[in-house]
């Protein structure tokens, strides 16, 4: 996985809060130095070879993750106000969307959802835009920082304020502390949504640059079976697992129902009927 460093001193408080290295610390780690006084690089001063491929920075009033554009493309940000999120909010298909059907959103039924693998928050935003209270969990500190920034901007925009108010973000590893994170957040885990990273094949080198950046940060999810087991213990009504259409189910009990479209599939593990 690629390293992330913070170069902007204005973001050092954020780096300390989330345990992200500043650029000086990243350079020291690369050189095997543990004492800043012994390092050739002064604290807070950026070097050209600091060991971090990605930088967390503020650009155009938003937090971004940026790397070599030839490898990673445009800087990555979370945007719930404009672009893809705005288009899907207006024209996405409402409760007929596959994710809404999988999570049980129907006429008169709007369950609360725990998105235990929040990623860039796109699925959670769709569910919240349809009226669901959503708890987002993200274990990767840099991605959590982007989510936190994107939610703050969505809360400040009149068109997305009410949606963002239904999205509650926590930083933690759901595969290890799902029950604790849910209990501390106060969102009922009627539905738990999982979208574990699917291991890519070597032949699939031409992946989108955004996904390459995200995968290099988060890695694959070898602990996905453990996450499914934890989710089955915590969810009160159902667990929903998003998979590539032709991917095998996660290791564990077989899903009770499967719904799919041309590219994606949702495996449903149902405890009991929603609304009951």
TrEMBL record:
<keyword id="KW-0963">Cytoplasm</keyword>
<dbReference type="InterPro" id="IPR007536">
    <property type="entry name" value="16SrRNA_methylTrfase_J"/>
</dbReference>
<dbReference type="InterPro" id="IPR029063">
    <property type="entry name" value="SAM-dependent_MTases_sf"/>
</dbReference>
<keyword id="KW-0698">rRNA processing</keyword>
<dbReference type="GO" id="GO:0008990">
    <property type="term" value="F:rRNA (guanine-N2-)-methyltransferase activity"/>
</dbReference>
<feature type="binding site">
    <location>
        <position position="195"/>
    </location>
    <ligand>
        <name>S-adenosyl-L-methionine</name>
    </ligand>
</feature>
<dbReference type="GO" id="GO:0005737">
    <property type="term" value="C:cytoplasm"/>
</dbReference>
<keyword id="KW-0949">S-adenosyl-L-methionine</keyword>
<comment type="function">
    <text>Specifically methylates the guanosine in position 1516 of 16S rRNA.</text>
</comment>
<comment type="similarity">
    <text>Belongs to the methyltransferase superfamily. RsmJ family.</text>
</comment>
<keyword id="KW-0489">Methyltransferase</keyword>
<keyword id="KW-0808">Transferase</keyword>
<protein>
    <recommendedName>
        <fullName>Ribosomal RNA small subunit methyltransferase J</fullName>
        <ecNumber>2.1.1.242</ecNumber>
    </recommendedName>
</protein>
<feature type="binding site">
    <location>
        <begin position="122"/>
        <end position="123"/>
    </location>
    <ligand>
        <name>S-adenosyl-L-methionine</name>
    </ligand>
</feature>
<dbReference type="Pfam" id="PF04445">
    <property type="entry name" value="SAM_MT"/>
</dbReference>
<feature type="binding site">
    <location>
        <begin position="138"/>
        <end position="139"/>
    </location>
    <ligand>
        <name>S-adenosyl-L-methionine</name>
    </ligand>
</feature>
């Amino acid at each position: 996985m690629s390293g992330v460093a913070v170069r902007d001193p204005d973001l050092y408080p954020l780096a300390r809060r989330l345990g992200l290295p500043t650029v000086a610390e990243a350079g020291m780690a690369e050189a095997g130095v543990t004492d800043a006084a012994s390092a050739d690089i002064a604290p807070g001063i950026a070097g050209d070879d600091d060991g971090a491929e990605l930088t967390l920075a503020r650009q155009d009033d938003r937090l971004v993750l940026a790397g070599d554009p030839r490898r990673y493309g445009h800087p990555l940000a979370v945007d719930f106000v404009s672009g893809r999120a705005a288009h899907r909010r207006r024209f996405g298909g409402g409760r007929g969307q596959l994710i809404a059907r999988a999570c049980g959103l129907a006429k008169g039924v709007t369950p609360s959802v725990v998105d235990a693998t929040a990623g860039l928050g796109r699925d959670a935003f769709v569910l919240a835009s349809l009226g669901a209270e959503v708890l987002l969990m993200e274990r990767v500190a840099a991605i959590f920082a982007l989510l936190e920034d994107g939610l703050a901007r969505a809360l400040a925009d009149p068109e997305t304020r009410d949606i963002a108010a239904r999205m509650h973000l926590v930083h933690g590893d759901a595969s290890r502390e799902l029950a604790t994170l849910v209990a501390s957040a106060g969102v009922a885990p009627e539905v738990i949504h999982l979208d574990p990273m699917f291991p890519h094949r070597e032949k699939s080198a031409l992946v989108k640059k955004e996904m390459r950046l995200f995968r290099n940060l988060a890695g694959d999810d070898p602990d996905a079976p453990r996450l499914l087991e934890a989710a089955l213990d915590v969810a009160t009504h159902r667990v929903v697992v998003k998979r590539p259409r032709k991917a095998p189910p996660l290791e564990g009990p077989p899903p009770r129902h499967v719904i799919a479209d041309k590219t994606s599939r949702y495996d449903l593990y149902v405890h009991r009927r929603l609304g009951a």
